[in-house]
Write a structure and sequence with these properties.
InterPro entries: PMDh-L-like_dom (IPR007506). By secondary structure, this protein is an alpha/beta fold. The protein has three domains: 5-186, Aconitase, domain 3 (2-Layer Sandwich), CATH 3.30.499; 190-296, no CATH class; 311-421, 2-Layer Sandwich (Aconitase, domain 3). It is built from 18 helices and 13 strands. Strands 11-10-9-12-13 form a five-stranded parallel sheet. Strands 7-6-5-8 form a four-stranded parallel sheet. A two-stranded antiparallel sheet has the order 1-4.
């Protein structure tokens, strides 16, 4: 790999042994993917995927201590993924015991390390750090050192920033050194679409279901999606951004997509259009039948397929302010229609701390609470990783949560019916 004089000096120990190791790690990482150089990280803030103080992550805490003691802290303030715990989210005595004593017993210790390394603030815990209320929204063309898959795909696609799908800890290494290897989605060639997706549905496709279908088909490749303009329009307004947030998270978790282009809507597609499509691009047509086929083929891993749901999670990735308001309106209308005052399945909506504050400052906060829904800022995935929570019959409209846990997927309309009607009348 060709290094600049400054990069070579760091590798040679000019900033200490620990920084030399950081630089060597980045170089080895880049060489695996054929990177010929390192480029500067140019965003104002970083985002780390590792936010949970799992007892088993001893080597991570040792590494953090080495960085802190050597003064090799992040060159940027950073946000992190959501916290794993919230006492307001339903859990029995044994589940809570596992959470606090056996799983996340190092949470307070680890968060103190994060503060020393450069945590933005105490509200900087969200997988959707790019939401306006969270304050970590990179600009078009900025080079990032992120790892959280749903944040990476949003930053690349909706914001036009540049970031590879890095692993946890590598995101921190890039921020500490101030450089990342130049390959993949950082390059113009790596951002070309090798798939053309033609959406030919008769109604607006569910974001999480459409993203799932595309992710499973293209895997880590870049898709150029055509046909969504009739549903999303040509402006990245709140509704379009919320849709693409959930769509992208599904492409990234059900496949390994780090970038997608939406014809006439996302920044690079507006600027370059079909010039983004590689000459030998493959094609995938998605109609109503194809979406139904994808949904029908999701594995059902509940021990009892007919079990009554014990818990419902909405918000993975975290809900935006507009989504929270829309869900509240729909909940109130559905409950009134079904002659109920509160949801009949314990339900948790998850959102970013900054969004929660903005939401609760309006009349919507009290209205949502009146429906019986719990508003939390945790990571539902981290909750479901508890071995005593995994066997529970949990329902969700998140394809990311479905993919990584035992939660059962339903569309948003089906979820609304289940939590406001009860029984099997979805």
């Amino acid at each position: 790999m060709e290094l600049t004089k400054e990069q070579q000096a760091i590798l040679d120990g000019a900033k200490g042994e620990t920084m030399a190791k950081v630089m060597k790690t980045l170089i080895m990482y880049g060489e695996i993917f054929g990177a010929e150089k390192l480029v500067p990280v140019t965003s104002q803030y970083n985002h780390l995927v590792t936010s949970f103080g799992l007892k088993a992550l001893g080597p991570v805490y040792d590494l953090m201590d080495q960085l802190i003691q050597a003064g090799a802290v992040s060159g940027q303030k950073f946000s992190v993924d959501p916290r794993p715990l919230d006492p307001n989210v339903p859990a029995n005595f044994l589940q809570n015991l596992v959470f606090k004593k056996f799983m996340y017993s190092k949470q307070d210790f680890y968060e103190n390390q994060l503060r020393q390394l450069g945590l933005m603030n105490e509200d900087a815990f969200s997988c959707a750090c790019y939401l306006d209320e969270q304050g970590n929204r990179p600009k078009k063309g900025e080079v990032l050192s992120w790892a959280e898959s749903s944040a990476v795909v949003y930053a690349n696609s909706v914001l036009g920033a540049r970031c590879n799908r890095n692993s946890g800890i590598m995101d921190l290494m890039g921020s500490v050194a101030g450089y990342v290897p130049y390959f993949g989605l950082l390059t113009d060639e790596g951002r070309k679409a090798t798939w053309v997706i033609r959406v030919e549905t008769t109604k607006k496709p569910e974001a999480q279901l459409l993203g799932s279908a595309i992710g499973m088909k293209v895997m880590e490749d870049v898709p150029y999606v055509m046909g969504l303009d009739k549903w999303l329009g040509s402006d990245l307004d709140d509704a379009a951004c919320a849709y693409l947030k959930d769509f992208g998270a599904a492409t990234a978790s059900n496949g390994a997509v780090g970038l997608y282009h939406i014809d006439g809507l996302t920044p690079e597609a507006k600027e370059l259009g079909k010039a983004l499509i590689a000459p030998d691009a493959k094609e995938y047509v998605i109609d109503d039948a194809e979406l139904q086929r994808v949904k029908d083929n999701y594995p059902l891993v509940w021990k009892n397929p007919d079990a009554t749901p014990k818990l419902c999670f909405v918000g993975c990735p975290h809900l935006s302010l507009q989504q929270l308001q829309d869900w509240t309106d729909r909940l109130e209308a559905a409950l009134k229609e079904n002659g109920r005052s509160k949801v009949c399945v314990p339900t948790v909506f998850t959102t970013a701390p900054g969004v929660r504050k903005a939401f609760e400052a309006t009349g919507y906060g009290a209205r949502l609470a009146a429906t019986g829904v719990i508003l939390s800022c945790i990571c539902p995935l981290m909750y479901m990783n508890n071995p005593l929570c995994g066997p529970m019959p949990v329902i969700t409209c998140s394809n990311k949560l479905r993919t990584y846990t035992t939660a059962r997927y339903y569309t948003e309309d089906e979820i609304l019916a289940r939590i406001t009607k009860g029984g099997d009348r979805a």
